Amino acid sequence: MVRKIRLGALVSGGGTNLQAIMDACESGGLAAEIAFVGSDNPDAFGLKRAAERGIATFVVDYRAVIRAFRANPQGARLPPDFRIEEVAAKQGILPKDGNPGKLALFLKTRAIAEAGLIEAMRPYPFDLLILAGFMRNLTPYFIDRVSPDRTQPRIMNIHPALLPAFPGTDGYGDTFRYGCKIGGCTVHFVDYGEDSGPVIGQRAFAIHADDTIDAVRKRGLEQEWQLYPECIRLFAEGRLETVRVRHELAGGNVYERTVVKIRPEKG
C-alpha cells in the first residue's frame, strides 16, 4: 500500500488549482491528503473550498502586516531569528543594488508575515507545501525554515507561462501581449528568485490568431489542473531528483544550474 503524503497549501484567491488537487486526492488519483490551507487574503475563496471539506484553514493578512509596519516601523516585532543582511544577500526578487529602503521594507514585512505562516503551519506536519495561486513571493527567511535541505526541496509552485519566459504575476497576459504562438504553464520548485526554481513539468498549447486573452487564460487553466496533480504525484512516488548540472560553453564560459531529473517509474 502506497503511503499518502501530507500536503500543505497556500492560496490567495479562488483556488481552482487547489480544487483540482483536492479532487485528485479524493478520487484516488493522487496518494495524498491536504493537512491545511492557508492564505494571505481573508477573502480568498480557496479557504471556503477547503473548509467545506473539513480541511483546517488559517489566514495571515499580509496587507494588515504591511499597514501596521508602515504606521509604526519602530514598534514592529521582527522574528528573533531574522537576520536582514543574510536574507538580503540570498534573495533574488528585488535588485540588491536598488533602493535600500524599499528592500528593507519588503524583507521586514515579509519576515513578520512569513513568521506568522510558519507558526500557523506548526500544528500540521506536511511533506510538501504547494502554492496554489499564492500571490506572494517567499523570501529566504521562509524557504530556509520550511525547506532547509536544498538537495530535497519541498515547496512547489505553478506558474502561468513556459518558464523561464514571463515570470511574474501575469504570465498568460504577458505571453498573449508578446504575440507568442505557444502558451503554457510550468510547475517548479521554489528557490530564492521570482519563478526561477528548477522546472518539474510543463504543458503547452497553441495560441490562435483569433484568441482573446480570456481564451488563453481558460486554455491555460485547463492545462494547469492536469499538470499540477501529475507533478505532485511524481513527488509522492519519490521520482523527483534535483541535480547540479554544468555546461561548458564556447569561449570557456560555464553555465551551472540545478535541474530536476524524473526517475523512471518502478516496476
Mean pLDDT: 96
Order of SSEs = EHEHEHHHEHEHEEHEE
The level of helicity is 25-40%
- How are the strands of the biggest sheet laid out side by side? 3-2-1-4-5-6-7
Describe this structure in words.
The mean pLDDT is 96. The chain has a seven-stranded mixed β-sheet, sandwiched between helices. Strands 8-9 form a two-stranded antiparallel sheet. The chain is globular. A hairpin with a 5-residue loop joins strand 8 (240-248) and strand 9. It is an alpha/beta fold and 267 residues long. Helix content is 36%, strand content 23%. It has helices spanning 16-27, 45-51, 62-71, 84-90, 100-121, 140-146, 171-178, 213-236; strands at 5-11, 32-39, 56-59, 128-131, 155-159, 182-189, 199-206, 240-248, 254-262. It contains eight helices and nine strands.
Helices and strands, with pairings:
Blueprint: E1 5-11, H1 16-27, E2 32-39, H2 45-51, E3 56-59, H3 62-71, H4 84-90, H5 100-121, E4 128-131, H6 140-146, E5 155-159, H7 171-178, E6 182-189, E7 199-206, H8 213-236, E8 240-248, E9 254-262
Parallel strand pairs: 1-2, 1-4, 2-3, 4-5
Antiparallel strand pairs: 5-6, 6-7, 8-9
